[in-house]
């Protein structure tokens, strides 16, 4: 597994506003969308392209475009849905799958309640969206669903992570083609499994309900 932690003042600035408990839901939603766009730049660095001949108004030339099979993006419902529009704006040809997981807050184990993915992901590049990588259970379960369906490689984009979640991913996907792109790597988890300093419950802050 490979890890990339963003190091850019614009990302840190937006994350700082996002973390602030005084930031209301509408601003929080806009910031999540802006942040996923910025992080997607790194996350799509290895997206597969094919050569294409075009004509500019001046001359014929050769360029690159994202070809087939199309990449698949999977937001982890709920909070990952807040990142979908930002990603799709950047890669409009992407196809979208869905995984619904909620963490049992007493055991911290992920519980899958929805899954709508193409049956065969052979040779497909996949991207997973979830703002929070805490224990890593939810992300690891989702990445495993994609590999089980034959995905070639998986890149996850998370806004904030704890080292515990990164270690979980490293252990489970050692030697697999998994990349995790983060906006920030925080200090750790508290006794309730929340990222410290983190930003609280991302789903609650995005949608205004617990
Ligand atoms: C949050 C978050 C991740 C998960 C991270 O979702 O969006 O999916 O927790 O925790 P983990 O790394 O310990 O698995 P939550 O379960 O709160 O559901 P929600 O998105 O519906 O609010
Ligand atoms: N899920 C969240 O939304 N926030 C955390 O800090 C941990 C899990």
TrEMBL record:
Entry keywords, A to Z: Allosteric enzyme, Glycosyltransferase, GTP-binding, Magnesium, Nucleotide-binding, Transferase
Pathway named in the protein's UniProt entry: Pyrimidine metabolism; UMP biosynthesis via salvage pathway; UMP from uracil: step 1/1
Description of activity control: Allosterically activated by GTP.
Domain Phosphoribosyltransferase: 5-208
Record-level GO cellular component terms: cytoplasm
Catalysis: reaction(s): UMP + diphosphate = 5-phospho-alpha-D-ribose 1-diphosphate + uracil
GO MF annotations in UniProt: GTP binding; magnesium ion binding; uracil phosphoribosyltransferase activity
EC number: 2.4.2.9
Alphabetical GO biological process terms: UMP salvage; uracil salvage
Residues annotated as binding uracil: 195, 200-202
Cofactor: Mg(2+)
Comment on bound cofactor: Binds 1 Mg(2+) ion per subunit. The magnesium is bound as Mg-PRPP.
Positions annotated to bind 5-phospho-alpha-D-ribose 1-diphosphate: 78, 103, 130-138, 201
Any Pfam family matching the protein: UPRTase
Record function comment: Catalyzes the conversion of uracil and 5-phospho-alpha-D-ribose 1-diphosphate (PRPP) to UMP and diphosphate.
NCBIfam families linked: PRK00129.1, upp
Protein name in the entry: Uracil phosphoribosyltransferase
Organism this protein belongs to: Pseudoclavibacter chungangensis
């Amino acid at each position: 597994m490979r890890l990339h932690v963003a190091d850019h003042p614009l990302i840190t600035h937006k994350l700082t506003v996002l973390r602030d408990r005084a930031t209301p839901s509408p601003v929080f939603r806009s910031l999540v969308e802006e942040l996923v766009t910025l992080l997607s730049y790194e996350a799509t660095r290895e997206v597969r392209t094919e050569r294409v001949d075009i004509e500019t108004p001046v001359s014929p030339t050769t360029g690159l475009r994202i070809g087939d099979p199309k990449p698949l993006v999977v937001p982890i419902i709920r909070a990952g849905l807040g990142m979908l529009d930002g990603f799709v704006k950047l890669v409009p040809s992407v196809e979208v799958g869905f995984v619904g997981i909620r963490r049992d807050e007493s055991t911290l184990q992920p519980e899958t309640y929805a899954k709508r993915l193409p049956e065969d992901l052979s040779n497909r590049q996949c991207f997973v969206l979830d703002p929070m990588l805490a224990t890593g259970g939810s992300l690891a379960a989702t990445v495993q669903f994609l590999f089980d369906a034959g995905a070639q490689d998986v890149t996850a984009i998370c806004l904030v992570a704890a080292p515990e979640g990164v270690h979980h991913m490293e252990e489970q996907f050692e030697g697999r083609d998994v990349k995790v792109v983060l906006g920030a790597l925080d200090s750790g988890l508290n006794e309730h499994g929340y990222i410290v300093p983190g930003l609280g419950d991302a789903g609650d802050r995005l949608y205004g309900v617990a």
